[in-house]
Amino acid sequence: MPPRRTATDRSQSARARYAQELALLRSEKGVSLRSLGDAVRADHTHLSHMEHGRSIGGPELARALDEYYGTTHLVILWEAAARDPSRFREQYQTYMTLEAQALGLQQYAPSVMPGLLQTEPYAQTLLQAAGPIDADALSEDVAARMGRQDLLSRTDDQPEFRAILDEAVLRRPLADSKEWHGQLAHLCQVAELPNVTLQVVLSSVGLHGLTNTDTTFLWLSDGRTVAYVETGYSGSVVEDARNVDRLRRSYDHLRDLALSPRKSCDVITKYMEEAPCEPPEYA
Q: What is the pLDDT of residues 85-124, one digit of tens each?
């Protein structure tokens, strides 16, 4: 097995390091993009985009390239690139950077499962529902979302995370009942982590200050608390202390209305039991 090497400048972004290493390995081997594409069963244009940092491909392609070059580090570089905030659209980059550094997070989700709690099938379905997306981009986006979740179970400096789910989140299942069962089971499993608190707010509580506002609070190491509010089409970081405090008061009120963590898991379990065993058949 060839020794692992550091072939790129550590001051670069993880995405840039991955792209540079791909180009370097192909140059050293002296093969064309078309020949490489034939060898790993990938489109040569897509491989070119990867070498220029416009795409990172999926994990399967990274493993295929490792096998072709006789290396072991490309999949490691790919994993780092998938977590790199620079790969997200510009309006989300600031939030992703803050999320990775936060000492604590609190979120209210009015209609969609929080990204930190999604399973791969849920993330894939949600991303596809947002609009047309090619297979490579979908694989990248799903992997990036899964990579974000590492912060909840990492061995050092685990942030405290509280998520309040509106009951509407649980009323909107995946079409595949097995995948939906897996998502609900995943919620209860994550809720057992010592740094995670999961609550459900029932629809019967009526309207409240965050009814239509997906809101996340982040506690930062410099003592600041910032908020992030999001719709299905855009998101923005809220740093003004007065606006953060106004959102926080609404969140605290909502937390008082929510079920306890134990009763919340009971509700989630009830939805698992009531879900059909098999997906419905349509004519």
A: 665 555 577 888 888 889 999 999 999 999 999 999 999 9
Q: Which sign does the torsion angle of CA 23, 28, 30, 31 carry?
A: negative
- H helical segments located in the chain: 14-29, 33-40, 44-51, 59-69, 74-82, 90-101, 120-129, 135-148, 150-153, 167-170, 177-191, 241-257, 261-274
pTM of the model: 0.73
Asked if pLDDT for residue 264 goes beyond 60, the answer is yes
Residues whose CB is less than 8 angstroms from the CB of residue 205 and which lie 6 or more positions away in sequence, other chains included: 257
d(CA 279, CA 107): 30
Residues 6+ apart with CB under 8 A from 239: 224, 226
User: Which tokens hold the place of 78?
Assistant: 């790919």
Rg (CA), the chain: 21
